[in-house]
TrEMBL record:
Protein name (record): Calx-beta domain-containing protein
One Gene Ontology cellular component: membrane
Keyword Transport applies: no
Swiss-Prot/TrEMBL GO biological process terms: cell communication
Species this protein is from: Geodia barretti
Any one Pfam family match given in the protein's UniProt record, by short name: Calx-beta
Swiss-Prot/TrEMBL keywords: Calcium, Repeat, Signal
Lineage, uppermost ranks: Eukaryota, Metazoa, Porifera, Demospongiae, Heteroscleromorpha
Amino acid sequence: TSSDSAVSFIVSSGVIIIVDNDNPSLSAGFVQTDVGQPETDGLTGARLRAFVNGRITQPVALSVSVAGGTATVNDDFTDSMAVLQFNINSDNPRRVFYTINGDTIDEPDETIVFQLSGPSGVALIPDRSTAVVTIINDDMFPIETGIIVLVDGTPEVRLEGGTGTVRVQFTLSPDITNALCTLRDVAPQQDCSSGTFVVTGLAPSRIPPVTLEIAALNQQGQQVAFISRTIRLGLSGDCSVNFLNGVEGALVFQGDVFIAFSVVGPTTSTECQLDGGTFTPCDRTVQYENLSLGEHRVKVRPNGDNCVRRIRRTVMFTVV
């Protein structure tokens, strides 16, 4: 015989949940992309900050590196690549620390360009992925004694140790009989037909550059030449240099550049540096050949144990 038998099935079910532990869509950038920082801030380089937008569920590391600028690494500032760590639910933003090497050198403001980079999945905000820090020169204006000599009608600037006195010497061409000289807003106009103009009693302190003006007159009293030149006055014991090749300071021909300068103060020793390289001795002139196209920079600094301060000068030029 046969008999039916019952078969029972027990069906069980389960749900597997895959937890997404990746960070949701994140973006990052610098809080400020243009930051000014006084040179004397030194180690307090915390004015530059970076942030991450979005909910952080896994640690995020952003890297900050130096990508350019006019400041010289290990001279004007200390270069160290920074890693900014953003932990889960961490506070934003993070500070970028760097070292500004302050000095007593009167020089133009200089810049550092910082570049932000991050892991995959973190989008850098295009206009906030780089930031420029401007090192603001806050050194006292030096005061240098200036002598301006006119050679065939062309002014040539020479500088000597500072005493709070400006002495201008020049030679008049034969058709010039009279000359009037002044330091604009500092000393009144006076006759300087003898070829010498002297102003004394200028305090060697925070005096900005002064403007020397010479008006040359012919026999009929008509002005036939006018020269305006900005000069500085220097503290006694300061050592500095003055570029002689006009306002730009450099004579550039194709890939060659020639720079001439005079030495100020109790020293005759100078060193020159091209594009952040090594300082090498140079004596009142320096020449570089076959330079690449683009912008270049030369720094000239005086040396000498008798210098109270060494005031460095910088000239920038472009090879095209």
